[in-house]
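Worked example 4.2. Below are the chains of a multi-component assembly; read each line carefully before continuing.
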Amino acid sequence: MNEPEVGLTTMARFLGATNVDGSRTYLEQLDPELHRYIVEFVYGEVYAGDLLDPKTRALCTVAMLACLGQQLQLGVYVRSASRLGASEEEIREVLRQVAVYAGFPSAWNALATMQRALEDFEETS
Amino acid sequence: MNEPEVGLTTMARFLGATNVDGSRTYLEQLDPELHRYIVEFVYGEVYAGDLLDPKTRALCTVAMLACLGQQLQLGVYVRSASRLGASEEEIREVLRQVAVYAGFPSAWNALATMQRALEDFEETS
Amino acid sequence: MNEPEVGLTTMARFLGATNVDGSRTYLEQLDPELHRYIVEFVYGEVYAGDLLDPKTRALCTVAMLACLGQQLQLGVYVRSASRLGASEEEIREVLRQVAVYAGFPSAWNALATMQRALEDFEETS
Amino acid sequence: MNEPEVGLTTMARFLGATNVDGSRTYLEQLDPELHRYIVEFVYGEVYAGDLLDPKTRALCTVAMLACLGQQLQLGVYVRSASRLGASEEEIREVLRQVAVYAGFPSAWNALATMQRALEDFEETS
Amino acid sequence: MNEPEVGLTTMARFLGATNVDGSRTYLEQLDPELHRYIVEFVYGEVYAGDLLDPKTRALCTVAMLACLGQQLQLGVYVRSASRLGASEEEIREVLRQVAVYAGFPSAWNALATMQRALEDFEETS
Amino acid sequence: MNEPEVGLTTMARFLGATNVDGSRTYLEQLDPELHRYIVEFVYGEVYAGDLLDPKTRALCTVAMLACLGQQLQLGVYVRSASRLGASEEEIREVLRQVAVYAGFPSAWNALATMQRALEDFEETS
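Applying the procedure described above to all six chains together yields the following structure tokens:
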């Protein structure tokens, strides 16, 4: 596996450098092993590849989480996509497409999550 | 709603101009109303927006279908993403990420579908 | 696609005439395009068919939403089924059947949503 | 729980009297306990209620199975709905509605299952 | 089906003798039929078998509910597994494994539910 | 992360020493990165913990895969559970319980997969 630093650098790219410590503290108290898997495997390996540009990667994550109805993590990745250059309208286009593949209630719920995530994001940035 | 031609033009962009007639014949015999919804609503409206570039849109569709385990339609959109400029390695990066959000069996099944889809694609193009 | 009025008339039949404006205002601020898709496609096309009687259609929607765990929209359609003539006991029979196909937790959650939806419904009607 | 005969009578109503023995033999060799649960609980209890008319009940089952992507059992209940008086067009209306709640691929797959189920049904009846 | 007492005895084994009355009162007011199915079928039949030891059975239930995202019932079975001898670390091992099969967000949500369930459990015992 | 050997040793424990090479060759040609993630992360980390006994772990995997409808991987883990000491009747008990949480069609499909997996297993061992 990659060096530990790779995970932290990648995490900063996707979650924002100022959010890494807070995320890690939360995950560490939730479960030290899950925390380690997220740093070393999710960010240290899967997200560390540079063949897919980060904005596209974050939009694909938004697409997946909206289809799976995972609202908590969707909010995090709506802000990530925004941070990496996706416009609100691009994120909306992805979420409208969710209606086609996972149904209208999933698209509706995801758009509501997106609105709250971007409001919080603007307030704190 | 948009003019009927919009749906057919958009369908050609994503599925390939030479595949539109075959797809429509299949859908028409499956259900004339579903066929009409796909031409007029899915391609005539949802996919017709030009704010998201087509390659990113197709990769987001790949991400969604892999998470939902819809192998038939996933094969179609792996070829679509490829047609719109996504490299095999970019598609693989999206499908590896599926392991993180929908689990390893979904990623595994999607990669197997991708391999078959790209083999067929190369043989017929 | 059908004339725009078809969607609004159908929406009034399923959601109640007095709820159409409120629903549209909510959807409009959530996403203008999703709002338009729901009026023109969901109600203007899919729900507009008259070959399936409205009560049966609403009960099938209740069945689908309960299996998918979409509680927000389930509450809306429990009231819709009730408005279109389904008795509370008929709705309960559909939700008990959810235990067979989607498992007991889905049936349990859906029955809790039904209770809250019918309480609110009686208070406001 | 109800008397054992209740389950067999209800099973005959939904699956067709001539199919009960074949279904039971299959389930018995699959798992004797699951077989018993299906006769005594699913048909002996859940389906035995007479407050919901059998045609509506079978259409709700079709709606649920299509949303859950359970093609094998969906084929059985498409034939059941047909046997209990649902027209092909009514079944199609339910399955088109699946596109709204569970996405187009689920509706598409369900319509393909419906076609095969009704073809087999006509050949053997 | 088994005698009614079997269900109540089994329910006491998995939910704790002091929780049976409260659970039944809640289920009874939610839906008398669902209540009866849970006592007579779920606990009276499925959970009543003694070929699988109760601790393993409860851990398998934890595994299933975490994959299905059913947080309410997951909390109940985290406490059940704990009551039947599973250590917190054993439950965590099962939930970390959820990341592999149903994705990291499902594992994350389940671990958060577990923490709350065990806190409540310790306070009341 | 753990040493590479840990993953291979753990893989041998769960899949059978004689199946490791075949599995790795298959995964390697499917996707070299997914292969590496499975050896180093899934078996090298998640399955490597020794706080949960291997038989219980394999039965929990069976429970998860049956709920998620992942038949291919379910077959592999039915054989793994069997190899680690679970009797056919114990596996059946877990799969009957799937009916309660994920519905009867999921339990039914899983039992059919189990039968095929154990037949193949006996033939080759």
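Take a moment to check your reading of the output against the notes. The mean pLDDT of chain C is 95. Chain C touches chain A at residues 30-31, 33-34, 37-38, 42, 65, 68-70, 72-73 (CB under 8 Å).
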